[in-house]
Amino acid sequence: MSELEERLRRTLTSDTSGRPSPDLFARVRESIDDDRTRRRRRARYLAVATAAVLVAAATVLTLTPYENGRPAMPWWTLELFTTGVLVAIALWLGPFIKRFGRAYAADVFHDNPLTGKSYIVLTDIVYYLIFTAYIMFTVNFEPPVEWGLSLNVSADQLEDEVARVGGILLIIGALHGVNIVLMPVLGRLFSLNRKLSGSHEG
Question: Which pLDDT does position 177 carry in this prediction?
Fold first, then answer.
Protein backbone atom coordinates (compact mmCIF):
# COMPACT_ATOMS: atom_id res chain seq x y z
CA MET A 1 0.00 0.00 0.00
CA SER A 2 1.40 3.36 -1.02
CA GLU A 3 1.82 6.29 1.33
CA LEU A 4 -1.05 8.17 -0.34
CA GLU A 5 -3.39 5.19 -0.02
CA GLU A 6 -2.42 4.77 3.64
CA ARG A 7 -3.11 8.46 4.37
CA LEU A 8 -6.47 8.27 2.59
CA ARG A 9 -7.38 5.15 4.56
CA ARG A 10 -6.56 6.83 7.86
CA THR A 11 -8.48 9.95 6.87
CA LEU A 12 -11.57 8.09 5.72
CA THR A 13 -11.68 5.63 8.61
CA SER A 14 -10.90 8.06 11.42
CA ASP A 15 -13.77 9.01 13.75
CA THR A 16 -16.26 6.68 12.03
CA SER A 17 -18.37 6.34 15.16
CA GLY A 18 -19.82 9.83 14.83
CA ARG A 19 -21.02 12.03 12.03
CA PRO A 20 -18.73 12.50 9.03
CA SER A 21 -16.35 15.38 9.43
CA PRO A 22 -17.48 18.48 7.54
CA ASP A 23 -13.94 19.07 6.29
CA LEU A 24 -13.41 15.49 5.11
CA PHE A 25 -13.33 16.41 1.44
CA ALA A 26 -10.90 19.25 2.11
CA ARG A 27 -8.58 16.94 4.03
CA VAL A 28 -8.62 14.36 1.25
CA ARG A 29 -7.82 17.02 -1.34
CA GLU A 30 -5.03 18.35 0.87
CA SER A 31 -3.54 14.86 1.15
CA ILE A 32 -3.62 14.44 -2.63
CA ASP A 33 -2.07 17.87 -3.18
CA ASP A 34 0.68 17.12 -0.65
CA ASP A 35 1.47 13.85 -2.40
CA ARG A 36 1.68 15.60 -5.78
CA THR A 37 3.96 18.26 -4.31
CA ARG A 38 6.31 15.62 -2.88
CA ARG A 39 6.40 13.78 -6.20
CA ARG A 40 7.30 16.98 -8.07
CA ARG A 41 9.98 17.78 -5.49
CA ARG A 42 11.49 14.30 -5.81
CA ALA A 43 11.47 14.63 -9.60
CA ARG A 44 13.32 17.95 -9.34
CA TYR A 45 15.93 16.47 -6.99
CA LEU A 46 16.44 13.51 -9.32
CA ALA A 47 16.77 15.81 -12.33
CA VAL A 48 19.33 17.98 -10.55
CA ALA A 49 21.33 14.94 -9.41
CA THR A 50 21.32 13.46 -12.91
CA ALA A 51 22.35 16.80 -14.41
CA ALA A 52 25.24 17.08 -11.94
CA VAL A 53 26.59 13.66 -12.93
CA LEU A 54 26.14 14.36 -16.66
CA VAL A 55 27.86 17.74 -16.42
CA ALA A 56 30.76 16.23 -14.49
CA ALA A 57 31.08 13.37 -16.98
CA ALA A 58 30.90 15.71 -19.97
CA THR A 59 33.55 17.95 -18.43
CA VAL A 60 35.85 14.99 -17.84
CA LEU A 61 35.43 13.68 -21.40
CA THR A 62 35.89 17.13 -22.92
CA LEU A 63 39.00 18.08 -20.98
CA THR A 64 40.75 14.71 -21.11
CA PRO A 65 43.77 14.86 -23.48
CA TYR A 66 45.02 11.88 -25.45
CA GLU A 67 48.58 10.67 -25.89
CA ASN A 68 49.29 8.08 -28.57
CA GLY A 69 45.59 7.35 -28.86
CA ARG A 70 45.22 6.66 -25.13
CA PRO A 71 43.55 8.96 -22.60
CA ALA A 72 45.91 10.81 -20.28
CA MET A 73 43.45 12.19 -17.77
CA PRO A 74 44.73 15.01 -15.53
CA TRP A 75 44.29 14.33 -11.84
CA TRP A 76 41.85 17.21 -11.34
CA THR A 77 39.31 15.85 -13.85
CA LEU A 78 38.74 12.73 -11.75
CA GLU A 79 38.62 14.92 -8.64
CA LEU A 80 35.95 17.07 -10.26
CA PHE A 81 33.97 14.03 -11.38
CA THR A 82 34.06 12.46 -7.91
CA THR A 83 32.88 15.70 -6.32
CA GLY A 84 30.00 15.82 -8.81
CA VAL A 85 29.09 12.24 -7.93
CA LEU A 86 29.06 13.13 -4.21
CA VAL A 87 26.76 16.10 -4.85
CA ALA A 88 24.46 13.91 -6.95
CA ILE A 89 24.31 11.25 -4.23
CA ALA A 90 23.43 13.91 -1.64
CA LEU A 91 20.60 15.32 -3.78
CA TRP A 92 19.20 11.86 -4.57
CA LEU A 93 19.71 10.03 -1.28
CA GLY A 94 18.23 12.75 0.96
CA PRO A 95 14.69 12.71 -0.52
CA PHE A 96 14.86 8.92 -0.84
CA ILE A 97 15.51 8.50 2.90
CA LYS A 98 12.93 11.15 3.76
CA ARG A 99 10.28 9.42 1.66
CA PHE A 100 10.35 6.28 3.80
CA GLY A 101 11.33 8.02 7.02
CA ARG A 102 8.23 10.22 7.09
CA ALA A 103 5.85 7.29 7.67
CA TYR A 104 8.21 5.84 10.29
CA ALA A 105 8.35 9.16 12.14
CA ALA A 106 4.56 9.46 11.97
CA ASP A 107 4.22 6.07 13.72
CA VAL A 108 6.86 6.88 16.32
CA PHE A 109 5.54 10.38 17.10
CA HIS A 110 1.83 9.53 16.73
CA ASP A 111 1.10 11.36 20.00
CA ASN A 112 3.14 14.37 18.88
CA PRO A 113 2.71 14.81 15.10
CA LEU A 114 4.17 18.32 15.08
CA THR A 115 7.26 17.06 16.90
CA GLY A 116 7.63 14.31 14.30
CA LYS A 117 7.52 16.82 11.45
CA SER A 118 10.06 19.05 13.20
CA TYR A 119 12.30 16.03 13.80
CA ILE A 120 12.28 15.16 10.07
CA VAL A 121 13.17 18.76 9.15
CA LEU A 122 16.04 18.83 11.65
CA THR A 123 17.44 15.51 10.45
CA ASP A 124 17.33 16.86 6.88
CA ILE A 125 19.42 19.84 7.94
CA VAL A 126 21.92 17.58 9.72
CA TYR A 127 22.09 15.31 6.65
CA TYR A 128 23.00 18.10 4.25
CA LEU A 129 25.44 19.66 6.72
CA ILE A 130 27.28 16.32 7.00
CA PHE A 131 27.41 15.90 3.23
CA THR A 132 28.64 19.47 2.68
CA ALA A 133 31.30 19.19 5.39
CA TYR A 134 32.49 15.82 4.06
CA ILE A 135 32.90 17.15 0.52
CA MET A 136 34.77 20.23 1.76
CA PHE A 137 37.07 18.15 4.01
CA THR A 138 37.99 15.58 1.33
CA VAL A 139 38.33 17.71 -1.82
CA ASN A 140 41.90 18.12 -3.09
CA PHE A 141 43.15 21.34 -4.68
CA GLU A 142 46.52 19.85 -5.58
CA PRO A 143 47.69 16.24 -5.93
CA PRO A 144 48.98 14.78 -2.64
CA VAL A 145 52.53 13.41 -2.47
CA GLU A 146 51.32 9.82 -2.14
CA TRP A 147 49.80 10.01 -5.63
CA GLY A 148 53.29 10.20 -7.13
CA LEU A 149 54.99 12.76 -9.34
CA SER A 150 52.68 12.27 -12.33
CA LEU A 151 49.95 14.86 -12.80
CA ASN A 152 47.72 12.30 -14.49
CA VAL A 153 45.25 9.95 -12.82
CA SER A 154 46.99 7.11 -11.02
CA ALA A 155 45.84 3.96 -9.28
CA ASP A 156 46.44 5.61 -5.89
CA GLN A 157 44.17 8.53 -6.77
CA LEU A 158 41.48 6.20 -8.12
CA GLU A 159 41.61 4.26 -4.85
CA ASP A 160 41.28 7.47 -2.83
CA GLU A 161 38.32 8.71 -4.91
CA VAL A 162 36.47 5.41 -4.52
CA ALA A 163 37.17 5.62 -0.77
CA ARG A 164 35.62 9.11 -0.73
CA VAL A 165 32.35 7.80 -2.15
CA GLY A 166 32.38 4.73 0.08
CA GLY A 167 33.20 6.85 3.12
CA ILE A 168 30.17 9.11 2.85
CA LEU A 169 27.89 6.13 2.21
CA LEU A 170 29.28 4.44 5.32
CA ILE A 171 28.85 7.58 7.44
CA ILE A 172 25.28 8.23 6.29
CA GLY A 173 24.37 4.55 6.66
CA ALA A 174 25.75 4.39 10.21
CA LEU A 175 24.04 7.61 11.27
CA HIS A 176 20.80 6.49 9.65
CA GLY A 177 20.97 3.21 11.57
CA VAL A 178 21.53 5.07 14.84
CA ASN A 179 18.60 7.35 13.98
CA ILE A 180 16.30 4.37 13.39
CA VAL A 181 17.16 2.95 16.80
CA LEU A 182 17.09 6.31 18.60
CA MET A 183 13.84 7.66 17.14
CA PRO A 184 11.46 5.27 19.03
CA VAL A 185 13.23 6.15 22.29
CA LEU A 186 12.74 9.87 21.65
CA GLY A 187 9.13 9.29 20.60
CA ARG A 188 8.46 7.42 23.84
CA LEU A 189 10.11 10.13 25.93
CA PHE A 190 8.10 12.89 24.24
CA SER A 191 4.90 10.88 24.73
CA LEU A 192 5.60 10.33 28.42
CA ASN A 193 6.50 13.99 28.88
CA ARG A 194 3.23 15.04 27.27
CA LYS A 195 1.23 12.66 29.46
CA LEU A 196 2.99 13.90 32.60
CA SER A 197 2.36 17.52 31.61
CA GLY A 198 -1.32 16.74 31.03
CA SER A 199 -1.66 15.02 34.40
CA HIS A 200 -0.05 17.95 36.22
CA GLU A 201 -2.35 20.40 34.46
CA GLY A 202 -5.38 18.28 35.35
Answer: 87
Q: How far is CA 183 from CA 93, 98, 102, 118, 126, in A?
A: 19, 14, 12, 13, 15
CA distance 136 to 132: 6
Q: Mean pLDDT across the stretch 88-98?
A: 82
pLDDT digit string, tens, across residues 13-61: 555 444 555 555 666 666 677 777 777 777 776 777 677 767 766 766 6
CA angle 130, 156, 54 (to 5 degrees): 55
Q: What angle do CA 64, 66, 72 make, to 5 degrees?
A: 65
* Rounded-to-integer distance, Cα 191 and Cα 196, Å: 9
Domain range list for the chain: 22-201
In this structure, are residues 79 and 139 in contact, taking their beta carbons and an 8 Å threshold? Answer: yes
The end-to-end CA distance of the chain, in Å, is 40
Confidence at residue 90, expressed as pLDDT on a 0 to 100 scale = 86
